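Intended use. Records like the one below are meant for learning the mapping from a protein sequence to its folded structure. Do not use them to infer anything beyond what is encoded.
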Amino acid sequence: MSLNDPQWGKRGNQSGGPPDLDEIWRNVNRRMNELFGRKREPQEGGDGGRPRMNLPLGGAGMLVALIVVIWLASGFYIVDEGRRGVVTRFGKYTETTQPGPRWHLPFPVEAVELVEFSQVKTIEIGYRNTPKNKIDKEAVMLTDDENIIDIQFAVQYNLKSAEDYVFNNRRPDQIVAYVAEAAIREVVGKSKMDFALYEGREQIAKQTEQLMQQNLDRYRTGVFVQKVTLQNVQPPDKVQAAFDDAVKAGQDRERLKNEGQAYANDVVPRARGNAARLLEEANGYRTEVEQRAQGDAERFNRILVEYQKAPAVTRDRLYLDMMQTVLGNSSKVLVDQKSGSLLYLPLDKLIQQTSPPASITTPDPGAVPPRPATPDASLTLDQSRARDALRSRDSR
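Structure written out for the chain above:
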């Protein structure tokens, strides 16, 4: 039996053929009427209260119903974790759905676009994949002091508004790249070359991140910039050798400055300490001299009082004190020749008591040894001094 046979589908299952579609449709219609509480109406032919058919009969109606069910079922969709569903109705934004099973009016009434919301995306400026694959058009930049440097950096971002990311801009990822390049050129253009190469890298990255976020919010791209990372900052390759020489000269300058500062830190405190020591010694010497002069003046005043009381005795006392002071440090022995008595003088013991301990010195081979003094000459000189002293005493 062919499908074009008008009796196809109307036969029962007695012959083992396909089921009767009209019967199936009547059963479905009856169940729907029971479900919605519709009343049974008797029909002609003694059907005995079978429900009246309110839906189209035949295989065409069943096919239409099946198509409608499939069409409605096509509106079901699942939003995965980390994504957002942007629903549009005839091309106009309707809502943003959260992760989970969702449903919308099927095409062409509504459509949904799944957007990666929490995934971190990365764009590279000045290079691709590795810093060795440099793109000069993006990497070369001009600093505030009119020097050229190469900067390679990466930007990490995700979304904070799915509807803005989908509807407000065309190719938003490309806009992020353009905004990143423009922002870092503005920041570098306001910085010196040494600042950009050395101590200002983190500050430049932070300022670029802030400026990018401001521009992206103004364009309503729905993008949130997480981090800007500078991969490489260096002078152009053509001037790298000259720049290395300049850097080395700067390092030598800093090293010499540090060495000079260290030497100054060593010499200046030592000189200040010596100056302070000399000042203290001078102050101590001045105090000593002043006190000694005051003591001598006080002693002289006291001697003057005693001299006025007994001049002869005071003069003799002063003379004896003077002679004791002078001759006490001398190793010479004076003998009075006027007395005829024989004196025993322990010269060896006197010399040992008066002479300082001999120090061992190494003689200089080239030095001329001094001429020893004649004992008679020294003795004669001492005798003459003693006679003069006795005569002056007798004359007094």
